[in-house]
Input
Amino acid sequence: MNSLRNRPVRNLVIASGKGGTGKTTVAVNLALALVSKDFQVQLLDCDVEEPNAHLFLKPKIEQTKTVGIPVPEIDLSKCSFCGYCAEVCSFKALAVFSEQVMVLPELCHGCGSCAYLCPEKAITEKERPIGVIESGKSGRILFSHGKLNPGEAMSPPLINAVKKEALPDRLIIIDAPPGTSCPVVTSVGGADYCLLVTEPTPFGLNDLDLAFQMIKKIGIPAGVVINRCDLGDSGVEQYCRKNSLPIVMKIPFSRKVAELYARGEAAADFLPGWRENFSELYRKIEAEQQGAK
Amino acid sequence: MKKVTIISGKGGTGKTTLTGSFAALADKSAVMVDGDVDAANLSLILQGEKLEEHQFIASSTAVINPQSCTSCNLCRELCRFNAISEDYVVDPVACEGCSFCHFACPSEAIIMEERVSGHWFVSATPYGTLVHARLGIAEENSGKLVTAIRNKGEELAESTGVRMLIIDGPPGIGCPVIASLSGVDAALIVTEPTVSGIHDLQRVVAVCRHFEVPALVCINRCDLDLQQTERIEGYCKDENLQLAGKIPFHRAFIDSMVKGIPVVEYDQGDLTRKIRELWEALLALV
Output
């Protein structure tokens, strides 16, 4: 595989509506299959609520940084208790009493409106930590993931921070969280192509439909990977045909693969054909994209 | 009223499949809530008839009036969500609904419009009432939507003399999980014997402790990797977590889902007995 310059797909995101369909398996094996001396790969695990890719890549973590969101801090000596900050806060993160201001940091979205709009300039912002980013290397693969602190509700600011770790001249592979709401939208935004990993069951189909609608709305081209393609029914294939959604890979169920996964081993390191199949997957995606242009 | 939530941390461990069976075992003595509002599946098993449909409005989106806008660029400088384009059009997906631009705009050119972020439903199923929802595509506020349907579920349970609420939680540990979990009497964590399952179990246990919710653990597909199953057993022992059940892999899980019925209605053997024991352990805790 030669250099990344002039390639149509340089930022690839792996998503799925339903959880547990095999996003991380696809992301990790794709990274292992493609990385080489001349072709650099960076994997960003944006499933910051439950990041798992490190369990398979076992990167050596070289750097850890704390990520926070700005929350208001009130200088009571300047505050006139006018209540305007509470009025402008759309998230009810501020409450003003006769001689006291209450800040509810877990409700704050860090928009900055209270600090800017306070007529007394009594509000400054300070960072409140919500999680960490760990970065390092697994062989030639550059790796970063975010870890949201348990008890924290808001993951998008941390996901954005993980995405900022992306370096130029590398194929970026993003492992997204399950679902279709804000954490997923944040993870997939800006990608050249989205792989939707699903399973051929009614749950898989229902959630593939939701995920495909989301991807269409954001305007990113997508292809489907059907995992455990021989367990279930034909609903997913019919859906893909009907919606002209390309099926770019099918992975049959294998006890061996499930056992490797259970132990935290990447199939590409153990099973013949896996590297080739995933290299082929990337070529197929590129061909799809070149055809579209 | 007793409230229990089924969660997992990791997705795809079998939360909804088990919740569907619990609903069948509860046999009209519980109201069900599907808290996985961005990928709701419980209604695919419980096959209810929709009785009510409601809009969910919890936030607003900025809209710029081009007639009043002087292109001063202040809103674009202030917006931390990069939601305003160079030609002063708001991207509704990126807009957080914070109203900062609305308050700051010197020519009062920005209004906030109510935004329908999803829909929620009340359905009658053969096993009791189900309250479920569909978050709008690429929408926010999943936590608020979970809270809204939880409250509705409680209200319906109370008004019909039902004494239990079963909440099928979403994967992860973020906002909709917290909304599904806070203030319930017990959480059943469904995990699987894989390194990912264990890693995510530990994080979701931390969330339960943060919100002081008693948790018990079930190992699904326990025969996939006996060594990892042993690790989970050891972890539960070390952490004083009750291991409420171990369920082996069975084709009936997939076959019943394809048929759209709860596993306990499909299989009458050992598997159903194990799910029943798990349900009874959960009932005993609350």
About this structure: Chain A has two domains: 11-67+130-292, 76-121. Chain A touches chain B through 58 residues (CB under 8 Å).
